[in-house]
Design a protein that fits this description.
This protein is mainly alpha-helical. Helices cover 72% and strands 0% of the residues. The two termini are 23 Å apart.
């Protein structure tokens, strides 16, 4: 695989991690600051928007893999996960459904990574 084609192979995994960090990392920082006596007011709409931007980037990051291995399941699973997160962020919040959305994003990123490596070109050396 040429370096140009490997350009965005990392995008889905990194965006998934950033989406998780935007959600739970922010909660952790706010809790730690609260324990220290510092109160912070978060704009929940912006917070949810940041989580969703990274979730959508994670889905978009699967496109090069789809073009390479021609398996649509990872991008469908990630799209479902992003849709679930959108529902949880903007319609009705539920912690377990939120975790399911993040799990779907993680599963899709890992699945795509495995498929990319399964379809990687085999380099043979002559003896």
């Amino acid at each position: 695989m040429s370096p140009g084609k490997r350009q965005f192979t990392w995008l889905s995994g990194v965006a998934t991690v950033f989406s998780l960090l935007a959600c739970y990392g922010t909660l952790l920082v706010v809790a730690l600051l609260g324990a220290l006596g510092v109160s912070i007011v978060l704009n929940e709409t912006l917070w949810a928007g940041a989580i969703m931007v990274f979730a959508v980037l994670a889905v978009g990051g699967l496109t090069p893999g789809l073009l390479r291995h021609r398996k649509a399941w990872p991008i469908l699973v990630a799209g479902t996960g992003a849709g679930v997160l959108g529902y949880v962020m903007y319609v009705q919040y539920d912690r377990m459904i939120e975790l399911a959305g993040f799990a779907l994003l993680c599963i899709a990123a890992f699945w795509d990574w495995r498929l990319r490596h399964a379809f990687a070109p085999v380099i043979r050396t002559s003896e």
